[in-house]
Amino acid sequence: MKALVFHGAKDIRYEDVETPSPKNGEVLVKVEAVSICGSDLAGYKGGNTMRVAPLIMGHEFAGVVAGLGEGVTTAKLGDKVGVYTNLFCGYCPACKAGLTNVCENRRIIGTTMPGGAYDGAMAEYLVAPVGKLLPLSGKRSFSEYALAEPLSTGLRAVRLAGDVKGKTVAVIGCGPIGLLTIMVLKHAGAKIIAAMDVVDKRLTMAMQCGATHTINSKDDVPAFTRQLTDGAGMDIVFDCVGAQATINLGADIVRLGGKVIWVGLAQPKIEFEFKHAAVKELTFQSVYLYITEMEEGLDLIESGDIDVKQIITSEYPMSEGPRIFAELASGNSDEIKVILKNE
Amino acid sequence: MKALVFHGAKDIRYEDVETPSPKNGEVLVKVEAVSICGSDLAGYKGGNTMRVAPLIMGHEFAGVVAGLGEGVTTAKLGDKVGVYTNLFCGYCPACKAGLTNVCENRRIIGTTMPGGAYDGAMAEYLVAPVGKLLPLSGKRSFSEYALAEPLSTGLRAVRLAGDVKGKTVAVIGCGPIGLLTIMVLKHAGAKIIAAMDVVDKRLTMAMQCGATHTINSKDDVPAFTRQLTDGAGMDIVFDCVGAQATINLGADIVRLGGKVIWVGLAQPKIEFEFKHAAVKELTFQSVYLYITEMEEGLDLIESGDIDVKQIITSEYPMSEGPRIFAELASGNSDEIKVILKNE
């Protein structure tokens, strides 16, 4: 089969590889749509411990069952499916506590984890355990279904924030995760959704996705949020970037006793204005992967309650992957979400 | 009257000042015992924005009503009283949200705040609004009652941690706040209370206060906590220091999906291992002052459920204040809690 194989920093090749064979309890999935995640791009740039070459990336995808391993009775050829990409172990302390998202031995489809590498969906086919399949009705496009995985991050972020109904919230960073978080916040009934980004085009898209106000992050964000909230500050801030500047901005613009949800992870080590955080009696909550949120995301896509296709800016043939990755990595791209499809 | 007046960095003088007069709605309180807080010591060393000279410090105290201002009907001469030291405004957004502890206009007895300076209890007398008095039975010593204020910090830290019953917890830093937090955790039913400090004497005291295990922070703390918890890490970590090393240690030794409670504030700006925090899906909660916890602390002292006198290492006449401050500031002191009393 053809696949986009990651061979090392800035080296992804569209080439022939052996088609995988589903083993006992596994199915072969023909990939219909796979989306490029920011983490795939970070992997492409090199130095990301979760993308070690050689690897076929791709964990945001949907497809059709095209082969059955031994003992598989709950799936049949032609089934349209999403795949729950977190292959948790089920027996570590985190799994036993119900926190399968941070399973110590987890493998994640399309990544390299301490638990092992697992080839992903930037290929014609991949294999997946039958128990991880999520049935799709087919009334939405495969490209939309592929976005259930990043949508699950927005859903988990909002869940961990507690009740957002009637609250004033800020979303820092309007890339795919920020925009999906805005959609979830709108659906959950947040009163004010203030979106922030350095790119004006993304702010326009944020308004389309449900933001009530926007400001370019280069402007005076603290003054803007004070004005929006009669001087109090935002009830909840979603940091969908996770860099030094945004983390300290979040603690600044959140109200006394408020919450900051750390969704993004752009910088591993930062200089943190700890005093600011300490004297305001704040809650900081980091968000990692999903538990039940991927199924919930698919339900919201199926029902039409959340329209993820708004953030899809391009669809390309898989064969153009090497060019697309290079363009996205250049930093000169206006793309939000790019979908790759097999010819 | 005599008072310990803070005149600037390392300059506290025991001298004559005018005895304050209670105004409308205020009472004069004769100070029976006042405890030196770490924040007083930080103020003494200089550069602390909450202690601007000239100021009479002292916010951990108890005394007797010795004078009544006009219109006071709910207190009488001779009443034994604690004082709720947070003079919140009641009308800012934080107060209206019930978060009087972070009131934007608050004054705190014995400190200099943006809302104003207020002379404290390191004197023969101070004035206090009658509505802030907390009645004392007299069956405990004034020195014990004086510790209701720092005890309230431990109570609020444990409250913000949620249910601790049956949990594995760590307390980093066994100064007064750490030790009081340990007492509260024992009373609340924590299963494992692992205490950490660089000073072995403090670890001995931690065991007396209710810790189940101790380790010197210079040793391999992560290995120790893994061993205590079958490899999982601590459910909740209370950082009663708030320095770069302890903040990063907390995120390291807490279990996946666990909570870190930031109680102390030793360093205003730190280099933070953000990635560590982000991928473990952690909650960080800072703690500031108290709301109802000071009354609850007095109740626990009155009932004997918490024995705060364990941490009182010395009692001195107020006149020796200048010498005591200098000794504590030298860093060569074994004291935990020092109480000053008027002759």
**Percentage of β-strand residues of chain A:** 25-35%
Using CB atoms under 8 Å apart, which protein chain pair has the greatest interface? Answer: A-B, 40 and 40 residues
Task: Provide the gyration radius of chain A in Å.
Answer: 20 Å
What is the average per-residue confidence, as pLDDT of chain A, rounded to a whole number?
97
Profile the largest sheet of chain A. 7 strands, mixed
Percentage of residues in helical conformation of chain A: 25-40%
Provide the CATH architecture of the largest domain in chain A.
Answer: Alpha-Beta Complex
Structural class of chain A: alpha/beta
In CATH's first tier, which class of the largest domain in chain A applies?
Alpha Beta
User: Total number of β-strand segments of chain A?
Assistant: 20
Question: Uncertain spans of chain A, ≥5 residues at pLDDT below 50?
Answer: none
CATH-assigned fold name of the largest domain in chain A: Quinone Oxidoreductase, Chain A, domain 1
